[in-house]
Amino acid sequence: xxxxxxxxxxxxxxxxxxxxxxxxxxxxxxxxxxxxxxxxxxxxxxxxxxxxxxxxxxxxxxxxxxxxxxxxxxxxxxxxxxxxxxxxxxxxxxxxxxxxxxxxxxxxxxxxxxxxxxxxx
Length: 121
What we know:
The chain is α+β, with helices and mostly antiparallel strands. The protein has two helices and five strands. It has helices spanning 7-15, 58-75; strands at 18-27, 33-41, 51-52, 86-93, 98-105. The mean pLDDT is 86.
């Protein structure tokens, strides 16, 4: 389940032309990791809107850090597991005011078996 974004962070995003952001959590070996990616609207070029997936200005970097701290406190992702990697991705679309969630995981899988004759020397 996604968590509500604070109005303060939402307003800062809008002020900096951030149209969305993604929180990528990863765990599996008793450590949790988080990465924040901003989606920043660029100026219109030749009548077409273009988009950037970069951090942008120092203000954008500070916003990404603040979103990281908010998500770390709010989601409390611990990464506990058996060594197999897994994760959750939350994408906040500020234009359409939606949040999508996707989870992923790795699983143990065995391949085929090859059998050779045992030779001795």
